[in-house]
Amino acid sequence: MDIAFPPPAAFGLPARFPHWRPDQIEAAQVILDASTRFVGLTMPTGSGKGLAYMAALGIGGGRGVVLTSTKGLQDQLRDDFGPLVFDVRGQRNYPCKALGKDGDLADLWHGDGEATCEEGPCHAGVVCGLKEAGCWYYDRLRQATGQRIISTNYAAWLAQRRYGQGLGGSPDLLVLDEAHDAVDQLAESMTITLEKWLVKAVGIDSVPDEHGPLQTWKDWAAFQSLRAKSKLETLGKPVSWGDLKYRRRLRAFLRVMEGLATMDWHNWVGDHTDQAWVWSVVHPAQYAEQYLFQGAKKVVLLSATLTAKTLALLGIEDATMWECPSRFPIERRPVIYVPTVKVDFKMTPDHWTAWKNRVDQIIGPRQDRKGIIHTVSYKRRDAVVAQSQYKDLLVTHQSSDLVAQVGRFRKNPKPQWLVSPSIMTGWDFPYDQCRCQIIAKLPFPDTRSKILKARCEVDADYMPYLTMQALVQAVGRGMRAPDDWCETFIIDDHWKWFGAKYRRLAPKWFLEAVRMSLALPPPLKL
């Protein structure tokens, strides 16, 4: 005889969740019952992972921290669970009272708009009494240490441990939402970037050879650290916005120098640009415990694309893994590989023609709907836009107007096809916003990056993992609910070998939807 499980409200969860979805109770039980410290949950879109981990936090008691990858997801968590979570963000999200209209240093502010705590005088070495009591940001941090469930983002969580006092003691349960981003978030937080304009702004005339030994940079940075500290100590009270800006730049320079001086050169690679000298960590996993996990008793990683490889990249060897089945019917989310050509730099003119014709063959009988063509590169984007016989239906964007153009596409009720190299992740196009997608090229990452090369040299699966993650994320852009529907076509013949060799890097819900068709099927209509 089945025993009815109490509704979410019985566990103190908001009334806006009147009942459980099919797999939320099991997910919460997996979290609570796991004997391992690390728990990995692959939960596809629509499975309701937020309610699952909030139930575990509520039932399990103790102190919890939930990390999200974007402010938008943090907003959603705040809107869904309201007073149950205490929201903490980075300094730029709080106005600076010292530079505000009635602040002690208001006369120094000459920036655009309202000053944020990121621009506050405390970052210029100026003693600010508000830091101890009265500052929106620092007061929020102090309040967070006494809260039972904290919501913040990866960047703020990592920065607080690296440069601040953290957000209290080690949590009993740490939730890494969108955990497929955790590796990059950790690596990015460790990256040392020395902007060339900043070097000039603080009066430095020469730097070491960027191609020279890293030890030379470390020695130079140690000397510059002492010099910057000495200069800061001799500066008087700022009397103008220019004084305050210079102090803040000098403090920023000092922080970079201190990081560079203590860098372990065995695990770092210089990958410099025209605008900055950049050093990135090859193995971010060695910093995961100190900065990401922070001694948490139990760590839960959740994502629609989570695999064992994600955990391995974070140095996790022993974990309880559970994969939630997708409740989206396969017939509503087919992923169809149609043999066309191998899309790469070896393409001949005939290959280009066959590839562009295939795009048009897909669009032709689907002119009554909206779709997305993922081209990966602007070169291929331009080829589609210029030569498609359906160019009147096509819209695209530049990097500078991405948000605006995508916003117009989403709001336009008329049939359109968005051609883009850069919306495989981070965007949602539910229902009539997207009924068809074309993966015009597999999203292999750019191997010209020195840090990517270094990581691939020590991990043969690293590039395939990134490719599969991007592909699976792209497929999910147009399928957002059980009653939604969206067909996806892969027209890059590299999928034939890639999909067979690296299927272990993909979640089951994705693989079960993939099939090959030698001929284009008729348009999906549901």
What would your notes on this structure say?
The protein is α/β, with parallel strands linked by helices and 526 residues long. It is 36% helix and 14% strand. The strands form three sheets. It has a seven-stranded parallel beta sheet. Helix 5 (154-163) runs parallel beside helix 6. The chain contains 18 helices and 17 strands. The chain has three domains: 8-94 and 135-188 and 284-323, P-loop containing nucleotide triphosphate hydrolases (Rossmann fold); 192-281, no CATH class; 330-516, P-loop containing nucleotide triphosphate hydrolases (Rossmann fold). Helix 14 (402-411) links the parallel strand 13 (394-395) and strand 14 (417-420). The longest helix has 21 residues, at 214-234. The protein is globular.
> Strand fraction band?
5-15%
Spatial arrangement of strands, main beta sheet? 3-4-2-5-9-1-10
Write down the overall geometry.
globular
CA-CA gap between termini: 37 Å
The CATH architecture category of the largest domain equals 3-Layer(aba) Sandwich
Query: What is the typical, i.e. mean, pLDDT?
Result: 92
CATH fold label of the largest domain: Rossmann fold
**Coarse structural class:** alpha/beta
Per CATH, the superfamily of the largest domain is P-loop containing nucleotide triphosphate hydrolases
The total of helices stands at 18
What are the segments in which pLDDT stays under 50 over at least 5 consecutive residues? none
Helix percentage:
25-40%
* Oligomer state of the chains in this structure: single chain
Number of domains: 3
Q: Sketch the major β-sheet.
A: 7 strands, parallel
| CATH class division of the largest domain | Alpha Beta
The counted number of beta strands is: 17
Radius of gyration (CA) equals: 25 Å
